[in-house]
C-alpha cells in the first residue's frame, strides 16, 4: 500500500518536473521526455541523416545557409537572454547544413540541428527569404513543437532508447519517429503537419527572430506568397503539404511586421536587409 502511494507520488512529481515553459508564449507545455534524453537522440539522428545524404559544402549557397543560420542562432539567444531565459539553449549544438535534394523542404531538429534542401532555394530566392524559413523552423525547435507532435508512446520509446544510450547506430524505428515529427523528408512515409496553432506561433516567433537578425520582416510575407504560388497544380511538395500557405498566415505576418521591427529595435537593430 505504502509503496503504491510512493509510486503515485513519484509519478506526479515526475510529470510536474517534465513541464517546461515556452519562453515565447509563457505557456506551460508537457515534456514527456526531457531535453537531456531528446537531444542526444536528435544529434545522433542528425548525423545519421547527414551521412546518408549529399551535404553541399563551400558553395556560395552552402556558405549562405551557414551565415544566415549563425545570425538566426545569435538573434534567438539575444532574445532569450533579454527575456530571462539565458541558458535555455546551453545544451544546443547548433549546426546548419545544405543538402543536395530537389525536395522543397527545410527543418530544425531539437538542439538547433538544421537542414535546408537545395530544392527550397528557388523559393527563398535570397538571404532574407532564407532567414524567414530558418527563423520559422528554429522557432518550432525552440518551442519544442516536434516533441508535442509525437505521441506519448513514441516519446516513451525515444526515452527508452536514449536511456539505454544509444550511440550504437540508429534503429529504423527511431529514425521513423524523428522523420515524422521533424519533417526529414518522405522516406518514412507519413508526414505529420504541425497544428495550426503551432504554425501561427512559429510564424510570429520566427518573424521576430529574423528581424532581430537584421532581416526585413515583410520578406516573410513575400516568402509565403511565393510558397502559395508554387503549391498550385500537382501534389504539393512536402514542405507545403505540412505548411499550407493560407491567406490567414500571410495576413498575420503582414500585421505583425511592425511589431517584429519594434522588437528588433530594442536590441539596437535599425536597418533591415531585404
Ligand atoms: Zn512550420
Automatic annotation (TrEMBL):
CDD domains cross-referenced by the UniProt entry: M48C_Oma1_like (cd07331)
Cofactor(s) annotated in UniProt: Zn(2+)
Entry's transmembrane regions: none
Recorded superkingdom: Bacteria
GO molecular function terms listed in the Swiss-Prot or TrEMBL record: metal ion binding; metalloendopeptidase activity
Chain ranges of the Peptidase M48 domain: 91-255
Cofactor binding note of this UniProt entry: Binds 1 zinc ion per subunit.
UniProt KW keywords: Hydrolase, Metal-binding, Metalloprotease, Protease, Signal, Zinc
GO biological process, one term: proteolysis involved in protein catabolic process
CC terms in the record's Gene Ontology section: membrane
Gene3D superfamilies cross-referenced by the UniProt entry: Metalloproteases ('zincins'), catalytic domain (3.30.2010.10)
Classification via InterPro entries: Mito/Outer_Membr_Metalloprot, Peptidase_M48
Signal peptide: 1-18
Family membership noted in the UniProt record: Belongs to the peptidase M48 family.
This protein's name: Peptidase M48 domain-containing protein
Organism of derivation: Croceibacter atlanticus (strain ATCC BAA-628 / JCM 21780 / CIP 108009 / IAM 15332 / KCTC 12090 / HTCC2559)
Amino acid at each position: 500500500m505504502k509503496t503504491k502511494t510512493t509510486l503515485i507520488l513519484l509519478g506526479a512529481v515526475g510529470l510536474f518536473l517534465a513541464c517546461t515553459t515556452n519562453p515565447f508564449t509563457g505557456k506551460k507545455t508537457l515534456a514527456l521526455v526531457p531535453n537531456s534524453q531528446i537531444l542526444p537522440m536528435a544529434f545522433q539522428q542528425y548525423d545519421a541523416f547527414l551521412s546518408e545524404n549529399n551535404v553541399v559544402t563551400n558553395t556560395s549557397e552552402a556558405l549562405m545557409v551557414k551565415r544566415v543560420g549563425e545570425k538566426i542562432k545569435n538573434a534567438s539567444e539575444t532574445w532569450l537572454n533579454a527575456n530571462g531565459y539565458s541558458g535555455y539553449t546551453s545544451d544546443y549544438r547548433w549546426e546548419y547544413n545544405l543538402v543536395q535534394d530537389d525536395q522543397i523542404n527545410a527543418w530544425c531538429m531539437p538542439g538547433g540541428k538544421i537542414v535546408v534542401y537545395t530544392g527550397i532555394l528557388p523559393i527563398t530566392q535570397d538571404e532574407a527569404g532564407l532567414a524567414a524559413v530558418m527563423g520559422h523552423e528554429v522557432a518550432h525547435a525552440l518551442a519544442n513543437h516536434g516533441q508535442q507532435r509525437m505521441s506519448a508512446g513514441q516519446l516513451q520509446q525515444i526515452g527508452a532508447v536514449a536511456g539505454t544510450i544509444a550511440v550504437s547506430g540508429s534503429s529504423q524505428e527511431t529514425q521513423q519517429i524523428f522523420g515524422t515529427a521533424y519533417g526529414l523528408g518522405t522516406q518514412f512515409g507519413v508526414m505529420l503537419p504541425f497544428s495550426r496553432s503551432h504554425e501561427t506561433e512559429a510564424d510570429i516567433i520566427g518573424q521576430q527572430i529574423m528581424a532581430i537578425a537584421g532581416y526585413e520582416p515583410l520578406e516573410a510575407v513575400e516568402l509565403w506568397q511565393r510558397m502559395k504560388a508554387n503549391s498550385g497544380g500537382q501534389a504539393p511538395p512536402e514542405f507545403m503539404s505540412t505548411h499550407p500557405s493560407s491567406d490567414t498566415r500571410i495576413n498575420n505576418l503582414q500585421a505583425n511586421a511592425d511589431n517584429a521591427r519594434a522588437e528588433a529595435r530594442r536590441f539596437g537593430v535599425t536597418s533591415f536587409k531585404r
